[in-house]
Amino acid sequence: MGLNIKPLADRVLVEPAAAETTTASGIIIPDTAKEKPQKGTVVAIGTGKKDEPLTVQVGDTVLYGKYSGSELKLEGNDYLIMRESDILAII
Amino acid sequence: MGLNIKPLADRVLVEPAAAETTTASGIIIPDTAKEKPQKGTVVAIGTGKKDEPLTVQVGDTVLYGKYSGSELKLEGNDYLIMRESDILAII
Amino acid sequence: MGLNIKPLADRVLVEPAAAETTTASGIIIPDTAKEKPQKGTVVAIGTGKKDEPLTVQVGDTVLYGKYSGSELKLEGNDYLIMRESDILAII
Amino acid sequence: MGLNIKPLADRVLVEPAAAETTTASGIIIPDTAKEKPQKGTVVAIGTGKKDEPLTVQVGDTVLYGKYSGSELKLEGNDYLIMRESDILAII
Amino acid sequence: MGLNIKPLADRVLVEPAAAETTTASGIIIPDTAKEKPQKGTVVAIGTGKKDEPLTVQVGDTVLYGKYSGSELKLEGNDYLIMRESDILAII
Amino acid sequence: MGLNIKPLADRVLVEPAAAETTTASGIIIPDTAKEKPQKGTVVAIGTGKKDEPLTVQVGDTVLYGKYSGSELKLEGNDYLIMRESDILAII
Amino acid sequence: MGLNIKPLADRVLVEPAAAETTTASGIIIPDTAKEKPQKGTVVAIGTGKKDEPLTVQVGDTVLYGKYSGSELKLEGNDYLIMRESDILAII
Asked: Which InterPro entries does the annotation name (chains A, B, C, D, E, F, G) (predicted)?
């Protein structure tokens, strides 16, 4: 695809997975009142902060908090741009 | 079981113990208005923050605050992902 | 007694003294609107934070703020787990 | 054009792109309740903070949060002056 | 008197002076709406924080803010335990 | 004029420009709901903070946020005293 | 006069100037809704914080924010005790 976007510093561009109740790997996002992590794929990363390179890499599937990041549309697709610290885990 | 999940930085994945009033080791979670610690088992840990490796290890039984962490379901089980600083003690 | 619990980092497990109006050493917790320190015995301590070992030791009688810590029951007794910074003084 | 303005420290002067629903490169700013990134061109930059030179350069097209920066008019045009940390990505 | 109490870290035990309108040295606590400093005698001090020994000493007469510290009774007398940073001046 | 005032640390004394809708250099302060930068001339500066000398100099024309600083009158003129971090740009 | 008071750390004892509309040096405290700096004379200073000696000296005439410091009466006069960072400028 070759997205022409460079997130700044510790920011990461994530393509959210489609809403689903059960994924191929069996992850189910529970429907409760607590903050629910969301799943997506990392499509672009920043260069990190001084002395702190990023841990996630392009292609990683990640979980992140429900209200993390800012939405943007790029070539017709929805993305989220967030700080790496908003990412909970790589799955 | 071999869960395929890598918590980021100082995050820890905990499998909560089933609700109970008395455990084998005699711990009772009191039912009062104050914040009540919860019990669970560590199933995955992050790599820690720069210069601060984690203290808890996979397999530890831990106590944590009632509202700590984010819920997620993984292969049909409920887990919580939280920062190590949300963990009060290893029992 | 040999409690099997390891508080994390700078946390301390305290067994609160029974409610009383006058203690053997003459301490009376006044009944006013201001925050009242409470008294208890340290029964387990963490390993401290990086470069900051703990000051209190197991067996110390300590004063702490009224709303400090989280309650837990262990082998039938009530305890509080709190950060050492919640402890005001050793008496 | 030669604007005679020197943003201080980590501040950046941005000329916002005209409101649009679809750009040449296909970026669409979605119309939802979440914070929407905006697009603009960097026209002047500060000298950075101590030991932290700026990453963006004059001429970069950048995305920034909807409520970032202070408005000012300069030689008849509208600009925003904001901190580099308000900039999400270079596109 | 030999009070058996060790304030922790940067905490100081103060015996408040009796309420008065004019002291021997002429200090009058004004009765206005602004925060009024109070006067007392330091009776016990902590060991200070890392690399920061305390400045006040046992026996110093000090001024402190009206709402500083926690009250406690010890051998029949009222005391306040507060951080040294709550102390405004030695008089 | 020789104002006899020494701002402390990172503070700067600014003489605000008269209210205007268009300046000689074409700057127009827009009249919208967003925070509007103001313009003025630096007439005195502090010595900076430890290891951080100031960037602005006496005589610089600067832009600053609408609610920055404290007003004072000196020899019949109105001034604002503010921290250098309240200054957005030199024009 | 020889006031017997030692402000702690970065605190400064200031004797406020009498309320006035125009001073000898022409300073007029404007009567508007914005925070208005006040004027006074430094009569005692602390020893500063670690590695940060104070800048103001006993005898300096200073401007400070309207709500800075705590009031106290000493030998019949009104004083304010405040942190040096509450002082805006030396005049």
From this structure: Chaperonin_GroES (IPR020818), Chaperonin_GroES_sf (IPR037124), Chaprnonin_Cpn10_CS (IPR018369), GroES-like_sf (IPR011032)
Residue E24 scores a pLDDT above 80? no
d(CA A43, CA A13): 6
What confidence tens digit (pLDDT) does each residue in F3-37 have? 789 999 999 999 999 765 555 566 655 555 445 57
Query: Dmax over Cα atoms in chain A, in whole Å?
Result: 39
A75 interaction partners in chain D (CB closer than 8 Å): 25-27
Q: Where are the alpha helices (DSSP H) in chain G?
A: none
Cβ neighbourhood burial of C79 (10 Å; 0-12, 13-18, 19+): buried
Please classify residue B69 by burial: count the beta carbons closer than 10 Å to its beta carbon, then call 0-12 exposed, 13-18 middle and 19+ buried: buried
Note whether residue A6 is domain-resident.
Answer: no
Length of chain G: 91
C3: in domain = no
DSSP code at position C21: S
Residue-wise pLDDT tens for chain D (91 aa)?
Answer: 567 899 999 999 999 997 655 555 666 555 544 455 789 999 999 999 878 889 999 999 999 988 899 988 888 889 999 999 999 999 9
∠G32-G36-G40 over CA atoms, to 5°?
140
Contact C76 B25 (CB under 8 A): no
> Maximum CA pair distance of chain G?
39
Query: Rounded to an integer, what distance in angstroms lies between the CA atom of residue C59 and that of residue E31?
Result: 45
Are the Cβ atoms of D32 and A5 closer than 8 angstroms?
no
The CATH number covering residue F44 comes to 2.30.33.40
| Pick among B42, B43, B70 to test the A interface (most A CBs inside 10 A) | B70
The answer to whether the Cβ–Cβ distance between G72 and E34 falls below 8 Å is no
pLDDT in tens, C6-16: 999 999 999 99
Chains C and D touch (3+ CB pairs under 8 A): no
Range of the domain at G40: 11-20+34-90
CB contact under 8 A, C30 and E78: yes
Which residue of D lies nearest to F60 if distances are taken between CA atoms? Answer: D6
Is B4 inside any structural domain?
Answer: no
* Total count of domains within chain C: 1
Per-residue model confidence (pLDDT) at position C18:
76
Residues of D in contact with F56 (CB under 8 A): 8
Maximum alpha-carbon separation in chain D: 39
How many Cβ pairs closer than 8 A exist between chain A and D?
Answer: 61
Element (H, E) at A87: strand A87-90
Distances (CA, A) of B12 to B84, C12, F36: 6, 21, 45
pLDDT reported for residue B83: 95
Instruction: Give me the torsion for CA of C83, C86, C89, C91, rounded to 10°.
Output: -70
ipTM for this prediction: 0.76
Task: Choose among F11, A47, F46, A45: nearest CA to D53.
Answer: A47
What 3 state SS string does chain D have? CCCCCEECCCEEEEEECCCCCCCCCCCECCCCCCCCCEEEEEEEECCCECCECCCCCCCCEEEECCCCCEEEEECCEEEEEEEHHHEEEEC
Identify whether A75 is part of a domain. yes
